[in-house]
Design brief:
It contains three helices and 26 strands. The N and C termini lie far apart (74 Å). The chain has a seven-stranded antiparallel sheet with strand order 1-22-19-24-17-14-13, with no helix packed on it. The longest helix is centred in the C-terminal third of the chain and has 15 residues, at 304-318. The chain has one domain (25-318): Jelly Rolls (Sandwich). The protein is globular, with a radius of gyration of 20 Å. It has helices at 3-13, 278-290, 304-318; strands at residues 19-24, 26-30, 34-40, 51-59, 65-70, 73-81, 83-88, 93-97, 101-105, 110-116, 126-134, 145-149, 156-160, 163-169, 171-172, 175-176, 186-193, 198-202, 208-215, 218-220, 224-226, 230-234, 240-244, 253-260, 268-270, 273-275. β25 and β26 form a beta hairpin. It is mainly beta.
C-alpha cells in the first residue's frame, strides 16, 4: 500500500472529531478598564468541563485586574505580548513576559492582583489568554500555589516548513511535552501556520477539546472556514482535528488547541468562586467576609501593585 493510500486509510479508521459549534469571542469589559474576548463562560457555552472560562485579554497601561479573590479553581495565564505583574496575599509576586505562562491554583482561597507592567513606547496592549480550569473535588480545599513556565522552556515542533507548534503541554509533531499545568490533565498547543500549511493533530480520547483562533483564517476538518476570534468546540467522537490554511490566504494563522480531562462532578460557580454545591458557595462568601478558612490573610492586606495602579489611574484622571 502506498503512503498516500495508508494516509487515506488512517483517515477512514481515525476520522477527525466533529465540530459541535463555533462560538465567536465577543469583546466585553472586565476587571478595571480591561477588554477581553470571552468564548467559554458565556451564555453560548457556560462551561466545557474541565474548562470554566477562556478570556483573550487586552490590557493597556490604564487597565488591569486589581485585588480580587478566587476559590475552587485553577488559572492558566499565557502571555502573548507585553508583560503582566502579579502579587497575592501569600507573599508571592513576579512578572510574566511574552511567551511565559503562569499556573495559579486557588484551592481553599487566594486574593491576588494582575496588572500590566510598564508599557512600551508604542503603546501596544498586553495581550494574552487566561483559562480557568475546575479543581477536582478532592482538591477544592488544597493550599494555593503558583508555578511559572518560561518561554525558553517550551519546546517547538516543526512538522513541516509551514507549521510551528509550541508544545506547552501535550504531544505534537513528534514532541512529547506533557506537563502538569494544573491538577487536572490539560494539553495546550500554540500553532502558527503559514498559507499552504496543514496539520492533523491527535487528541486524547474522552477529553473535551477546542480550537481558539487568534489571527488569520483556518479550515477545520476540511470543510469549516473559521476567521479569527472564534472558538471551535469539538465533539468527543473521532481521533483529533485537521486544520489547514489555504494557499491563497494572505495572512499566517495563529491559534491554540486545548484539551482537558473532564471530571464527573457538579459545578456551581458564582463569579470567582467555584464549588460543588450552593451550600459551598454560601460558605465561601461567609469565609471571605469573615477572614477565615483560607481567607485569613485577606484582613488588612492590599497588594503593592494594586495600590500603584489606583494611584496612576487617579493621576491620569486629574490630568
Amino acid at each position: 500500500m502506498t503512503s498516500l493510500n495508508m494516509a487515506s486509510a488512517e483517515k477512514i479508521f481515525n476520522p477527525p472529531r466533529s465540530i459541535a459549534k463555533v462560538i465567536p469571542a465577543i469583546e466585553q469589559s472586565e476587571g478595571d478598564g480591561a477588554r477581553v474576548r470571552r468564548s467559554i463562560g458565556t451564555h453560548q457555552l457556560r462551561r466545557f468541563p474541565p474548562f470554566l472560562m477562556l478570556d483573550h485579554f487586552f490590557l493597556t497601561d490604564g487597565a488591569g485586574f486589581p485585588d480580587h479573590p478566587h476559590r475552587g479553581q485553577e488559572t492558566i495565564t499565557y502571555q502573548l505580548s507585553g508583560a503582566t505583574n502579579h502579587e497575592d496575599f501569600t507573599g508571592s509576586s513576579g512578572t510574566i513576559q511574552a511567551g511565559d505562562l503562569q499556573f495559579m491554583t486557588a484551592g481553599r482561597g487566594i486574593v491576588h492582583a494582575e496588572i500590566p507592567a510598564t508599557q512600551p513606547q508604542d503603546g501596544k496592549p498586553n495581550i494574552g489568554l487566561q483559562l480557568w480550569v475546575d479543581l477536582p473535588a478532592r482538591l477544592k480545599n488544597c493550599e494555593p500555589r503558583y508555578r511559572d513556565l518560561r518561554a525558553a522552556e517550551v519546546p517547538i515542533a516543526r512538522p513541516s516548513e509551514k507549521v510551528d507548534i509550541k508544545v506547552i503541554s501535550g504531544k505534537a509533531g513528534g514532541v512529547d511535552s506533557v506537563k502538569d499545568l494544573a491538577y487536572t490533565p490539560v494539553w495546550l498547543l500554540h500553532v502558527t501556520m503559514r498559507p499552504g500549511g496543514e496539520l492533523s493533530q491527535p487528541l486524547p480520547r474522552g477529553w473535551n477539546a477546542f480550537v481558539y483562533t487568534m489571527a488569520g483564517n483556518v479550515v477545520v476538518n476540511g470543510t469549516k472556514r473559521v476567521e479569527r476570534f472564534n472558538n471551535v468546540v469539538l465533539g468527543r467522537d473521532g481521533a483529533g482535528v485537521d486544520i489547514r490554511v489555504d494557499a491563497g490566504e494572505s495572512e499566517d494563522a495563529d491559534f491554540v488547541i486545548l484539551a482537558g480531562e473532564p471530571a464527573d462532578q457538579p459545578v456551581v460557580q458564582y463569579g470567582p468562586f467555584v464549588q460543588l454545591t450552593e451550600k459551598d458557595i454560601h460558605k465561601t462568601f461567609e469565609d471571605y467576609q469573615e477572614y477565615k478558612n483560607g481567607f485569613e490573610r485577606r484582613k488588612g492586606w492590599e497588594s503593592k501593585i494594586g495600590q500603584e495602579f489606583h494611584l496612576r489611574r487617579r493621576h491620569s484622571f486629574r490630568v
